[in-house]
Amino acid sequence: MSRKGGKSLKQAQGEETRATLIYTGARLFAQNGYNGVSMRTLAAEAGVNLATVSYHFGGKAGLYEAVIREIFKVRDQIYPPTPAVEARLSEAGDTPEEKAAVADWFMDTLINGLLIRTEYAWGTVIISRELVHPSELHPKMEELFFRPNLESLRTLVRGTAAHCRNEADEVITAHAIISIVVKLLESHGLICKIIGWDSFENHLKDISPIIKTRIRGLLGLPMENAQ
Question: Cys staple from 62: which of 7, 58, 131, 137, with CB 3.0 to 4.6 Å?
Answer without folding.
Answer: 58
